[in-house]
Amino acid sequence: xxxxxxxxxxxxxxxxxxxxxxxxxxxxxxxxxxxxxxxxxxxxxxxxxxxxxxxxxxxxxxxxxxxxxxxxxxxxxxxxxxxxxxxxxxxxxxxxxxxxxxxxxxxxxxxxxxxxxxxxxxxxxxxxxxxxxxxxxxxxxxxxxxxxxxxxxxxxxxxxxxxxxxxxxxxxxxxxxxxxxxxxxxxxxxxxxxxxxxxxxxxxxxxxxxxxxxxxxxxxxxxxxxxxxxxxxxxxxxxxxxxxxxxxxxxxxxxxxxxxxxxxxxxxxxxxxxxxxxxxxxxxxxxxxxxxxxxxxxxxxxxxxxxxxxxxxxxxxxxxxxxxxxxxxxxxxxxxxxxxxxxxxxxxxxxxxxxxxxxxxxxxxxxxxxxxxxxxxxxxxxxxxxxxxxxxxxxxxxxxxxxxxxxxxxxxxxxxxxxxxxxxxxxxxxxxxxxxxxxxxxxxxxxxxxxxxxxxxxxxxxxxxxxxxx
Length: 470
Known about the structure:
Blueprint: H1 9-18, H2 23-30, H3 34-41, H4 49-59, H5 63-67, H6 70-82, H7 94-103, H8 105-126, H9 143-153, H10 159-172, H11 179-191, E1 194-197, E2 206-209, E3 214-217, H12 223-238, H13 240-249, H14 255-274, H15 277-286, H16 291-298, H17 302-309, E4 313-314, E5 317-318, E6 322-328, E7 333-338, E8 367-372, E9 378-387, E10 399-407, E11 429-430, E12 455-456, E13 468-469
Parallel strand pairs: 1-3, 8-11
Antiparallel strand pairs: 2-3, 4-5, 6-7, 6-10, 8-9, 9-10, 12-13
Helix pairs in contact: 2-3, 6-7, 6-8, 7-8, 9-14, 10-14, 11-12, 12-14, 13-14, 16-17
């Protein structure tokens, strides 16, 4: 078994603590010396393949979980924060950052939070002309950002809700026939809630009257949207206690963040109900992640399918690690998650060379890109445009681009990679994460220089950019 050097001392210590074992007892169980275990737990030595296999066998640990997960996301966020000119006198090496993430993740999270507060304060102060106005704290984390980070650092997978939704889906027989009839029948029989169509001109997607036990749906909503809104109502009634408990234990600082998280958890349950974990994972593998076929198979939208693929992180039964994002025409990332090494920038726009921007030029198509990031990691990236509008010719129809992809080592699991030259390094287009932290010096599409690089301006010579990076 080929294994890279893994410094996972904190995770090994957590496994030992969960087993209520001393270092001596734990070392004996996995067949190593106590001194070696002590060195592993303090990240002085990497774990070997034999130790990984022993952990998997003795403690039912998924080896993949030990080498991936929060580390990459936390390392990326910390690296981006420290690239700010605020820290211009300090340029830590990748190894230093890894040591912090591995040994003191709480400190890394705290530093990221401080940097977020600093940026918000700076941005708000820059927009003030004469007086600051207001009395609130400029540095306070917004509720939306707090919830976004909650989902980001739990790997976008909520185990208790996912399992609960899957059991209910199996009980009801969802995914094998008419979801609408099953969902409405369950609401009526178990909660006394009737589902009716709204009046023409009603812009609400869903409206629930608890007193009348009536759920009114927009008459023009497409079937996948309609079914999702019914599933969302089921989540609010069936999974209320579980959702409240998860949101309550997250430790949010404001009531707003708590309520926003509840919305996110209700949406999570709805998606897991309509696309139950094992059934969806099995079909995804058999159909080789053909997005259109998966959408037809489960009566879902492309966005629902892409989002669900990014949540397949169940311990012991993981899907392909993927990144997923939804981007508006202005380049704002409105949804984002990555279980890969590629981590989206927390500030600034996405790389202009990424194919997700091209999706707006080719509506109705799934476009492909072989991409390589500055760290040498290579990816298969898929992008397509979706329209969220409803209500006829004169209705506003917001357009978004969806991006979905995986590291190239998993590309054979996708039908979209069949005729691509995966072994040809020159077929991969260079992309970055964000211009403000990208170190590529000769990119003609650069929107702004890297934050920590000095510029050389020559008035007698002009290239693609009005400066050179030194």
